[in-house]
Design goal:
single chain; binds ligand AOF; binds NADPH dihydro-nicotinamide-adenine-dinucleotide phosphate; Cytidine Deaminase, domain 2; 27% helix; 536 residues
Amino acid sequence: MLAPPAPPPLGVAPARASYPLRPVPSRRCLPAPRAVSAAAASHAHDAVFLRRAAEVADRSAGLTSPHPNFGCVIARPQLETENLDAWVAGEGFLYAQGTPCAELIAADQAGDHARGATAYLNLEPGDCYGDSTAVSSLVQAGITRVVVGLRHPLKHLRGKAIQSLRSDGIQVDVVGEDLQSKLFKEALTSCLIVNAPLLYRAAFRVPFSVLKYAMTADGKIAASSGHASWVSGRASRGRVFELRGRSDAVIVGGNTVRRDDPRLTARHVKGHVPVRIVMSQTCNLPEEANLWNVHEAYTIVATQRGARRDFQKKLAMKGVEVVEFDMLNPRDVMSYCYDRGYLSVLWECGGTLSAAAISARVIHKVYAFCAPKIIGGANAPTPVGELGMNQMTQAIDLIDVSYEQIDRDMLMSGFIQPIPDLSPVIPSVDEIPSVDPEVSPYETNIISFYKTWDTFGVFSNFSPHPIHMPDEKGDCLTWPTVEHYYQAHKFAGVDNPQARDIVKEIKKARSPEEAARIGRTRQREFPELVYLNIPL
Ligand SMILES: NC(=O)C1=CN([C@@H]2O[C@H](COP(=O)(O)OP(=O)(O)OC[C@H]3O[C@@H](n4cnc5c(N)ncnc54)[C@H](OP(=O)(O)O)[C@@H]3O)[C@@H](O)[C@H]2O)C=CC1
Ligand SMILES: Nc1c(N[C@@H]2O[C@H](COP(=O)(O)O)[C@@H](O)[C@H]2O)[nH]c(=O)[nH]c1=O
């Protein structure tokens, strides 16, 4: 038998309640495959462990800014038991960009049990250089076989880690290439779903967009008066906080702000806080609103060029960012969110804006919470307004649909557009251009580095490279990343013990994203401690 698992290191969080990754509810224990031939049984085992890797990869959701989800499960057969949980020697996930990789955590946990074992990876690792990276962790641990669910979707990274593992003598089996069966297809779906935001961003150059609404059993999202609190039950609303925690931004329309005065925070746990975006053409918004309290979360108002400039100034005075668009529409707002580096966006708007967003083809997934109540009202708002369809045959069929009961409510979710699987296109080395037009907007002489995993991501503040910088006394200090240094220096040099504590707190942050979160939050909370009061 294997030794009991070590206490969870960084990147191994306790299992959290999360929505299912696939159309069937997840099981607590791994199922034992039924008695079949040795090859079929080993395929069944592979598929089970690969799905587990996808589930493990999902555990960082809501803890940090959305990022590519990597999970690793190291397993070796235990002849004396069919309980597949006992076969798992180690597992881990990437907690945040710049923290130890999933493979390193799993290999550390497995210790000697990793020798001769198989590692299951939902996604090909993106970084294969250096000592603590995925590839070297697996090689040094003595792994002899690796099963990969999905090749890396970004062209400049795709195939590199697989090639590197193979050249180190490790057998690498890639699903869909070396392993094919119905079971692997299902396992692959789990791998695709857990990284849907990265795949959509890479394929369509927009953030992954989820439309969420709560409706009554007669399909209304509010009473005829517009009153909507609450349609769904407390447990469902708790799930919405989780969905917000998984998103970079939450979007509503102006009418929802006027009607509901929402907060749109992920106030369930201390985790990731999404930006709140209001789309309002008229900018005819209330003087006082919960969303203008930027101490709770950052707010952006996206509006039509020239709309109520005086009011725009008032918002700016409160710390709200106002962005003008020549023609405010969902697609341009999504392009803007892409440029800001957002990976996933949650639309919590009413039917008018949701119809515009669906028509603009920017919505990829829907979460429909249905409460067992009837409100009636011919004019009561419904989740999706006019789409211009007049035949039921024109209806959009959701894909990979899941159903889940949440207390008395029912949650139905499904994809509007198929998840892009970019993996079959494997470029040869000389096919990889020096500037990859698929990854970042391409203009001669301009390079972009919105995300650390983009081609030029190494230039990003968030790139996980330590820097050495002199302090005020001229002593050289090491900072985990440029972002740590930047955020800390909002407060450095301020003669105040609290400011000094904030600098230390930022320096200790486990990832550049956390450093950014702490720096921005403290800046909002204690603007008087900010050196020279630099703008937000
Ligand atoms: N149960 C639920 O899940 C939810 C219920 N609701 C309820 O729905 C009702 C509000 O619905 P609805 O008015 O549809 O919601 P929204 O306010 O979310 O959307 C409409 C508003 O979006 C703005 N907008 C910006 N760009 C566009 C565009 N290109 N096309 C269309 N609209 C744009 C406009 O704001 P402006 O007028 O400022 O220019 C418009 O009035 C309320 O009663 C609210 O309580 C809302 C959200 C979720
Ligand atoms: N009424 C309704 C929802 N409405 C959505 O939630 C927003 C309120 O969020 P907050 O102020 O943060 O609690 C509201 O403006 C609208 O977008 N959501 C649901 O899950 N269930 C519900 O019954």
